[in-house]
Automatic annotation (TrEMBL):
CDD domains: TM_ABC_iron-siderophores_like. The chain crosses the membrane at residues 20-41, 75-92, 104-122, 129-149, 161-182, 203-227, 247-280, 292-313, 319-337. SUPFAM superfamilies: ABC transporter involved in vitamin B12 uptake, BtuC. It is found in: Cell membrane. It is a multi-pass membrane protein. It comes from Marinobacter shengliensis. This is FecCD family ABC transporter permease. Gene3D superfamilies: ABC transporter involved in vitamin B12 uptake, BtuC (1.10.3470.10). Keywords: Cell membrane, Membrane, Transmembrane, Transmembrane helix, Transport. Belongs to the binding-protein-dependent transport system permease family. FecCD subfamily. Pfam families: FecCD.
Length: 345
């Protein structure tokens, strides 16, 4: 009796794997294109043809210097930022069972940004210290999100939860503005950083966040399966041997590590954690494990594509990355809110 059942189950698994493979390959190819675009396009004097020649080893020293010292670190930081925010958004949405949950909308990024602003005010300058402070702030913001989802009626209403998160974000942004009035030097640095940008960052900044990203991705592997079980309900998850409270705690820590690292790298970018899981779920369905797999290439691709656009839209100047991500994400948010029904999670 078992053999026919097994034989019937295998084709379904093969079909499911193939259905995920095609969007994964497509997202990977798009990511490759935007990585190349990030290396060859810029607002500076080096043209795409000169950049391609430098990558081929036949270009000028000036072009190779621009790629090696400016565009390559920027590309790596864009990859890390998109990866962190995309996965953090998917985890938040699955944990709260809310398709509008996003680090930038719920105050997690604002908490990290406020903590970094305090650190800058007190003279923090090293990348490691900024990363640690951002993660502490993100942890506080994420904890408030978890508390909000436990409030009667709030966690089950996507719009009310986002309004609560927007209130928290507004409060933290107001406090950040107050900090900017205390020190002109810090104000200039905070003002540039808070708009969101990955320009002018060094490889040292990227390397300082790598330990946090590695730990966070390890935790993602740990929580993915229990989180998928929690989608069936907490009683079902407990019946399968999982502990929902422990899983929520691990997700909180994971999101704090991811958002803190991304905020230290690029500033408080909004809507990335909303757009990336939204695109991934369009191909993967509600299964969080498939969604997380697709977020791996889609998150970096979205951030790098937005960054390339920020270089070209206002050349020879550059538009802040945070402005471009807002231009991309705002229509997606409106589309979700105006939909006849929320996507099931």
């Amino acid at each position: 009796m078992n053999a026919p059942l097994t034989a019937q189950a295998n084709p379904r698994n093969v079909v499911a794997s193939r259905s995920l493979l095609l969007p994964l390959v497509a997202a990977g190819l798009f990511l490759l294109l935007v990585v190349i675009g990030s290396l060859i396009y810029g607002a500076g004097p080096v043209t795409p043809r000169e950049a391609l020649a430098a990558l081929a080893g036949t270009g000028s020293d000036e072009a190779w210097f621009v790629i090696r010292e400016l565009r390559l670190p920027r590309t790596l930081i864009g990859l890390a930022t998109g990866l962190a925010l995309g996965i953090a958004g998917a985890l938040l949405q699955a944990m709260t069972r809310n398709p509008l949950a996003e680090p930038g909308l719920l105050g997690v990024s604002a908490g990290a940004g406020f903590a970094v602003a305090i650190a800058i005010l007190f003279g923090a300058s090293t990348a490691t210290l900024t990363t640690l402070i951002a993660q502490v702030g993100a942890l506080a913001g994420c904890s408030l999100v978890i508390a909000a989802t436990r409030v009667q009626g709030l966690g089950n209403d996507p719009v009310r939860l986002v309004l609560a998160g927007a209130t928290l974000s507004g409060l933290l942004l107001a406090l950040t503005s107050m900090l900017m009035l205390m020190d002109q030097r810090a104000a200039d640095e905070i003002r540039f950083w808070i708009t969101g940008s990955i320009a002018g960052k060094s490889l040292a900044t990227f390397q300082a966040t790598l330990p946090s990203l590695i730990i966070a991705l390890t935790l993602v592997v740990v929580v993915a399966r229990p989180l998928a079980a929690m989608a069936l309900g907490e009683r079902a998850a407990v019946g399968l041997g999982h502990h929902p409270g422990r899983i929520r705690f691990l997700i909180t820590v994971t999101v704090a590590l991811l958002v803190g690292a991304a905020t230290a790298l690029a500033g408080p970018l909004i809507f990335v954690g909303l757009v990336v899981p939204f695109i991934a779920r369009a191909f993967s369905g509600p299964d969080i494990r498939k969604t997380l797999w697709l977020c791996l290439p889609i998150g970096p691709a979205v951030v790098l594509a937005a960054d390339v656009a920020s270089r070209l839209m206002a050349a020879p100047a550059e538009m802040p990355l945070g402005v471009v991500t807002a231009l991309i994400g705002a229509p997606v948010l409106l589309a979700i809110v105006r939909a006849g029904r929320m996507p099931s999670l």
